[in-house]
Design goal:
Nucleoside Triphosphate Pyrophosphohydrolase; globular; 312 residues; three-stranded mixed beta sheet; single chain; binds zinc ion; 6 helices
Length: 312
């Protein structure tokens, strides 16, 4: 029942084909040569957004330029990697996206275009957005409070006062589709979600906890359902601002529902037929398109969900 092969398409944001080439990050001479190479491509990231444009044949592409056309900002230059053709990629973090003479390009966020860009471009964007989020929120040394400086082409922040090196943070979160003995799926509606929006349960892993423990704790806290077997399926970077979603299938041993009312407003067991009918009537809205939540539900459902949104 588990495994991403249940549907043919790769999970968004998880395939890129770019070699991150981390061994070059602290080699200033190599980075300078890579930056000025004529085939190098650069894009600007600002507040989680990039510029995209639609091609004549209807594809969505990241707007990238040679480095000599890029706005200068040596301080906030992130080296992202090298593709199989040897093209090097950099992202520039700026306070605003650059203006363009044409009006073909438009700003867009990862939730909107993460599933529309090519896997290579989506991978570059998720890397850049994750780095930007971390850089914005970790400007001061957590050991001594001094302002830190960027190093390693965007992948380290170094403290000039105490010498500490700080690395990009990723927060593990579990997301799980729980089924019962009748192979029904447990879906919940968070308190701030609109009426009809149901999805898998999810939550952050706590300190000193295994991810399997986190799955069982979160399901019990949010829905009152006791979970036994837990099986890992796949992961997805989710830099909003810094999560790594760890996807599971889980089996309930005590299916009685008692929602917590704080995070989850309502939770229900759905058979496939229940869910199909609820989608058709509009009583339940399908989950957002690119998230692993949608994929976990699809794996159980056995076929693509009826409608796939692209935003959020
Ligand atoms: Zn320090």
């Amino acid at each position: 029942m588990t495994g991403l092969d249940a549907t043919s398409k790769p999970l968004a944001l998880t395939t890129t084909g770019v070699d991150r080439a981390a061994h070059h990050r602290q080699d200033e001479a190599w980075l300078a040569a890579a930056w000025s190479h004529p085939t190098t491509r650069v894009f600007v990231v600002s507040g989680g957004q990039v510029l995209v444009e639609e091609t004549a044949d209807g594809r969505t592409e990241l707007v990238m330029t040679p480095s000599f056309d890029a706005p200068e900002t040596e301080q906030h230059r992130y080296f992202l990697g090298i593709d199989p053709d040897g093209v090097r990629y950099f992202a520039l973090q700026k306070d605003t996206l650059p203006g363009r003479m044409d009006d073909v390009a438009r700003p867009a966020g990862l939730r909107e275009v993460g599933g529309l860009l090519s896997p290579l471009e989506a991978g570059l964007m998720v890397h850049a957005v994750a780095l930007e989020n971390w850089q914005r929120m970790h400007r001061f040394c957590s050991r001594c409070g001094e302002r830190t400086v960027i190093a390693a082409a965007g992948h380290i922040r170094r403290c000039p006062a105490c010498g500490a090196e700080h690395y990009p943070r990723t927060d593990p979160a579990v997301i799980m589709l729980v089924t019962d003995d009748e192979d029904r799926a447990l879906l919940g509606r968070q308190v701030h979600w609109p009426e009809g929006r149901f999805s898998t349960l999810a939550g952050f892993v706590e300190p000193g906890e295994s991810i399997e423990q986190a799955v069982r704790r979160e399901v019990f806290e949010e829905a009152g359902v006791v979970v036994g077997d837990v099986e890992y399926v796949a992961s997805q970077p989710w830099p909003f601002p810094s999560s790594l979603m760890l996807g599971f299938m889980a089996r309930a041993t005590k299916p009685d529902i008692h929602v917590d009312g704080e995070e989850i407003h309502e939770a229900r067991w759905f058979s496939r037929e229940d869910l199909r009918a609820a989608f058709e009537s509009g009583e339940v809205l399908p989950p957002y398109g690119i998230s692993i939540a949608a994929r976990l539900i699809e794996i159980w459902y056995g076929k693509p969900l009826p409608r796939q949104g692209t935003s959020r």
